[in-house]
């Protein structure tokens, strides 16, 4: 059984470019969803907007 994947990445990340996330999605062998957060950096983000809400939507999309 393969687990679904959610990847959250900030478009303003100054350490790891967001296109690395796109490569991870291409290589995933199961359902993989990406959430690219507009104002999220490598260490600054809104816990609710950048993690909790996308996680909730992802879980709903896979039937949880």
Describe the structure.
- This protein is of the alpha+beta class and 64 residues long.
- The chain has one domain (5-61).
- It has helices at 19-27, 47-61, and strands spanning 5-10, 32-37.
- Strands 1-2 form a two-stranded parallel ribbon.
- Helix 1 (19-27) links the parallel strand 1 and strand 2.
- The longest helix is centred in the C-terminal third of the chain and has 15 residues, at 47-61.
- The radius of gyration is 12 Å and the shape is flat.
Kindly provide the radius of gyration, computed on alpha-carbon positions and rounded to a whole number of angstroms.
12 Å
> Structural class per helix/strand content?
alpha+beta
| Spatial separation of the terminal alpha carbons | 16 Å
Mean pLDDT across the residues is 95
SSE string, helices as H and strands as E:
EHEH
Number of strand segments: 2
Count of domain modules: 1
Summarize the main sheet.
2 strands, parallel
| Beta-strand content | 15-25%
Neighbour order of strands in the largest sheet: 1-2
Total of helices:
2
Shape: flat
Helix content: 25-40%
Uncertain ranges: none
Secondary-structure topology with pairs:
Blueprint: E1 5-10, H1 19-27, E2 32-37, H2 47-61
Parallel strand pairs: 1-2
In brief:
By secondary structure, this protein is α+β, with helices and mostly antiparallel strands. The protein has helices spanning 19-27, 47-61, and strands spanning 5-10, 32-37.
């Amino acid at each position: 059984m393969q687990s679904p994947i959610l990847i959250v990445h900030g478009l303003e990340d100054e350490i790891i470019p967001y296109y690395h996330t796109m490569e991870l999605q291409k290589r995933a062998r199961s359902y993989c969803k990406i959430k690219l957060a507009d104002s999220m950096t490598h260490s600054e983000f809104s816990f609710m907007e950048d993690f909790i809400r996308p996680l909730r939507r992802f879980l709903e999309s896979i039937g949880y």
